[in-house]
Amino acid sequence: MSTSTTRGSGPGGRLSSEADDGVLPGEAASERGDEEVDEELADADPEWEHLASIAAAEHALCLALLSYASYCQTTRQPERALPLYRRIVHAVGDGPRRARVLLELGQLSEQRRDYASAAVIYAEGVGVATPDPRVAYFHRNNLGYSLNQLGRHAEAEVPCREAIALDASRANGHKNLGLALEGQGRHAEAVEAYLKAVEVCPADRRALDHMESLLARDPAVASEVPRAAERLARAREAVAEAARRRPN
C-alpha cells in the first residue's frame, strides 16, 4: 500500500506518513486524488524540511523547559517554576502531555497556597483526555482538595467521587470526600468516608484525626453510623499499628 506524507509531525518532529485508502502500488497519480502528494516530492520540498526542523526545535525546547521547571519545583522555587510551566502549557497543545503539565502547574499553585488558581488549573486538566489513570485521578483528587480549601464543599464532592471511581485504593480521595461531606454538614457520611480512608491506608493518620475532631464537635453523629464505636476502635488500632511498624 502506498503512503502520502502529511503536514503533521511524528516523534522528534519528523514528518509522519499515513496509509492511503486502498491505493495499490503502481496506480496512476490521477487515480489517487489531486490532494495527495508523492512522497518523493514532499521529501524534496524545502518548506517541509524547515517545518520539520522547527517542530524538532520546539520539541527540544519543551523538554529543556520541563527539565528546568521540574528542578525548580523539586528545590521549592515555585516562583521560578510557574512561568516555565505556563510557557510549556501553551507550547504542548492538547493531549496527554498537556494534562501532565497542567497537573504540575496545579501542584505549584498549591505550594504557594493559591488554591483558587490551583482549582482553575485542575478543572482544565479534568477536561483534557489522558491515557494515564494516575494523572486523571490526581486532577480530580487535587481539584476536590483545592475546592475544600476554598470552602466550596458541595463543588468538591463531585471530583472527589470521580477520583475514587478511578482509583479507590488511594486514601486521599476518601479523605477529601470526607472533608467535602463534613463541610456540607453531612457528618455521618463524612465519618464513613474517613473510616474508608483509614482502612485503605492506616499509615496516613490524617483521616483519623479529621474523624476524631468531627466526633468531638458532634458526638451525636456516632449514633447514625452503624457499629461506630467498634469501627472507630479498629481504626485507631490500625493507625497505631502502622505507626509502630514505621521505621524510626
Tally of extended strands? 2
Distance between the termini: 65 Å
SSE pattern: EEHHHHHHHHHHHH
Helicity level, as a percent range?
55-70%
Oligomer: single chain
Q: Give the full name of the CATH homologous superfamily of the largest domain.
A: Tetratricopeptide repeat domain
Largest sheet, if any? 2 strands, antiparallel
Average pLDDT: 78
Which shape, going by the Cα principal axes? elongated
- What gyration radius follows from the Cα positions, in whole Å? 26 Å
Count of folded domains: 2
Low-confidence segments, given as residue ranges, are 1-42
Task: Quickly give the CATH architecture of the largest domain.
Answer: Alpha Horseshoe
Note the beta-strand portion: under 5%
CATH topology of the largest domain: Serine Threonine Protein Phosphatase 5, Tetratricopeptide repeat
Category from helices, strands and their pairing: mainly alpha
Instruction: Supply the number of helical segments.
Output: 12
What key attributes describe this structure?
248 residues; mainly alpha; Serine Threonine Protein Phosphatase 5, Tetratricopeptide repeat; two-stranded antiparallel sheet; 5% strand; disordered N terminus
Task: Give a short synopsis of this structure.
With 248 residues, the protein is mainly alpha-helical.
Tell me what the structure shows.
With 248 residues, the chain is mainly α. It folds into two domains: 102 residues, Alpha Horseshoe (Serine Threonine Protein Phosphatase 5, Tetratricopeptide repeat), CATH 1.25.40.10; 80 residues, Serine Threonine Protein Phosphatase 5, Tetratricopeptide repeat, CATH 1.25.40. It is built from twelve helices and two strands; from the N terminus they run ββαααααααααααα. A two-stranded antiparallel sheet has the order 1-2. A hairpin with a 5-residue loop joins strand 1 and strand 2. The termini are far apart.
